[in-house]
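Q: Sequence in, structure out?
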Amino acid sequence: MQDALNFDPRSIDSRSPCDEKPVTRDGLDPGKSRSEFNKLQKRLRRQVGHAIIDYDMIREGDRVMVCLSGGKDSYTLLEILRNLQRNAPVSFSLVAVNMDQKQPGFPEHVLPEYLEGIGAEYHILERDTYTVVKEKTPEGKTTCALCSRLRRGSLYGFAQDIGATKIALGHHREDILETLFLNLFFGGSLKAMPPKLLSDDGRNIVIRPLAYCREADIAEFARLMEFPIIPCNLCGSQPNLQRQVVKEMLAEWEKAHPGRLESMFKAVTQVAPSQLADRDLFDFAGLEDKQARMQADRIDIVNALKH
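A: Exactly. Output:
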């Protein structure tokens, strides 16, 4: 792919300023702690690099808007992209964007202080979606659908305002699998979150560089990096959240059968349309014509061999 971001594995594993971050883990030898942290960091860099290559996520001159929520996933996404940016064979820029949804008690100072501390370009987009969500969501219903729709619309529009060519989200492997099962169980559709997506209006390309990364690795990396995590009191605290139920189900499967999640994610990347039942995706009605053409081709080959 011309102008795609093709990382050399050696550059992915090279040292960066984040290697100098002091790591202390209770009960472990400091040398061992450093070694384990380096392995974890290199693994995340490598997986993000491969995802970028496989799905042609970042190209020369891209301006990547990294959506920063204050959670472990988006902090990790920004940090790993900043690491890779230093060794990338193409030039691209990063701009972190946080959407302040005006949730009561939201610590507005945390993200600006962190981003200024690491020297990152950033914007804080203020939109009072919290009030809208609380007013429009019936009692006892989850706020996720409306909240995500409002947030997505605001961020997509802002990406255009600042000239971003790509929008990077912090969804990881488990997020993708959870979405697959949520759609399967409750939506009657076989779909998940693609690593790269063109928005419905054709104006924005969304990328998910953490698509190959395990949530457990991200959580450990965030802990060791001591990111200033901001909990979401709107989404995560809701009772009867179906995504949490599916998350627990997948965790139980992985515990009982290690490697099952990896196998399921591989299945998402290897779809066989002829083995499903979507008439728009596969031409079932044309199988007889295809059979006739194949039979005719065989006859032509046999006749050619006879002569």
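The longest helix spans residues 30-54.
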